[in-house]
């Protein structure tokens, strides 16, 4: 076993501030189950004073991960958001009287979760999808002369029916049907069009529609926002917006899209915020 | 932090090492204080040390069913025995430059094979295992050829206790003229081992796994097996392993071997009973836990569990604090803690791979100890799960994760 400091052991065996913070208004996550370490940091920040009034955590990992998570909550409680945002992984390690080198990544997870929580509070997207201001939204669908691999007509028609599309519907109309808000929000954007075939768009829409129950089961949702070339923009909402497992599910959606259409696509999530 | 002094500690990490038997320690003592001569010396002190070696050689030969005591070469432990066997097999068969081994061998074999592959141009076939840790026999057959110098497959796995069918595996190797070595470090003293029935050419063993001292092992080298020493120098071990013998340690190993042979039949049955009770109790008290390794064919003393959605290290730390010694199925690899190569080779789902804990018993384990572990372990798992973002009151909290990766046991 690792040679942990007494402070690490203390914070592992009697973690402070463990559990769900029901009235959190800033949540940040880091790590993954597959990686063996994960942290969900929940903060209640006073919106006027920007003071962190309460901090709690849920943590999956070994002794050092749980100790780092707990130490982090102790470090940020009572601090201003500004002061907290200056905390570094080294501060967490110092608070715990050091960590074995193999375990230093736990402090980085702590700092990442904190940065994500602060970003969430400030209304920033912590892991921003590629934002290219010049890149416009899709306005009309241009069907390329020869799609490299289109679904057979019968299959395409079936896919379109399943997605609730009427024959001849454009992507814009399809999105508007499934998600009127998204279509309205982006209706004003204009610019050159990167074409995507109608059948492809229908297939993508169908896949996302089919996958919705998976997200809804956990009181979340996924909506198709747009398709630009090989980028598929979706909106995550509800609990999925802050769930660290969502990225895994999204990877599954992306994989299905790529397998169905036979070429690479990137699924880019944006998170709905109140 | 110190252990609460209230209850005596419970040692369930016997696959890592064991307590030295009192009788073994007693046998060693005079070789430090009275009969401390060099076994090669021509005086009474040396003769007494040499007598200790002879007795030990006899006891070890008997424990593994060797035909002759001359087939036992003492080493500093299992790692040296393994290295000696593999290197000798390559050195004596110049035309054969391939090794067949498995993906779940001990690092003493795997790291050696990696180095031979990287620096000495040896081709290594690493045979996979199935989800229960059993060797993929078809892949094994396919890897064999007359280019193979040596097959090295473990008798029992140190993490899961899974037993490989050594006898049949050796026969297949011999069909292609390859030598057969088995790393039996976890098997010798814990389960009946008969080198002649199994038809192995070389076998590695280690005394500290069966209540002998650390730093003592042996290589069984079947008579007439071509050989080259790893360590050259003095004439010890008939020129097969140079260096002054660790006479006290070897004497202790011999005593431990005698005890293991004498207690084997009764011990294995009793230990298996305790292990099965422990296993059943944990499966009953803890949801979402799976037993790793083939339950029908494994060491009687080993229980390897994978707890879904909890990290093994946390469990082991909390057990340690409660006075219970166990070990995780994780190893530290390149700055991060990863599930062990054995757990990865078995394809354990990632939801459980980090939650592997090994409990390994010995003949010193008691019923009361098992009962206490059954009181202490389930709440530890529940406490850690309560801290996890992936766990809710009702069980795993994994939105969107395919149910296949979280099979109910």
UniProtKB/TrEMBL annotation, chain A:
SUPFAM superfamilies registered for this protein in UniProt: Fe-S cluster assembly (FSCA) domain-like (SSF117916), SufE/NifU (SSF82649)
Domain of life: Bacteria
Sample GO molecular function, one term: iron-sulfur cluster binding
Keyword Transcription regulation among record annotations: no
Annotated NIF system FeS cluster assembly NifU C-terminal domain residues: 204-262
Xref: InterPro entries: FSCA_dom_sf, NIF_FeS_clus_asmbl_NifU_C, NIF_FeS_clus_asmbl_NifU_N
GO BP: iron-sulfur cluster assembly
Ranges for domain NIF system FeS cluster assembly NifU N-terminal: 4-124
Residues in coiled coil: none
Protein name: Nitrogen fixation protein NifU
TrEMBL record, chain B:
Catalytically driven reaction(s): (sulfur carrier)-H + L-cysteine = (sulfur carrier)-SH + L-alanine
Entry keywords, A to Z: Iron, Iron-sulfur, Metal-binding, Nitrogen fixation, Pyridoxal phosphate, Transferase
Documented EC number(s): 2.8.1.7
Alphabetized Pfam families for the sequence: Aminotran_5
UniProt keyword Iron-sulfur, yes or no: yes
UniProt GO BP: amino acid metabolic process
Iron listed as a keyword: yes
Limits of the Aminotransferase class V domain: 10-372
Molecular function (Gene Ontology), one example: iron-sulfur cluster binding
UniProt cross-references to InterPro entries, sorted A to Z: Aminotrans_V_dom, Aminotrans_V_PyrdxlP_BS, Cys_deSase_NifS_bac/arc, Cysteine_dSase, PyrdxlP-dep_Trfase, PyrdxlP-dep_Trfase_major, PyrdxlP-dep_Trfase_small
Top-level division of the source organism's lineage: Bacteria
Swiss-Prot/TrEMBL cofactor(s): pyridoxal 5'-phosphate
Assigned protein family: Belongs to the class-V pyridoxal-phosphate-dependent aminotransferase family. NifS/IscS subfamily.
Subunit annotation: Homodimer.
Function of the molecule: Catalyzes the removal of elemental sulfur atoms from cysteine to produce alanine. Seems to participate in the biosynthesis of the nitrogenase metalloclusters by providing the inorganic sulfur required for the Fe-S core formation.
Record's protein name: Cysteine desulfurase
Source organism per UniProt: Rhodobacter maris
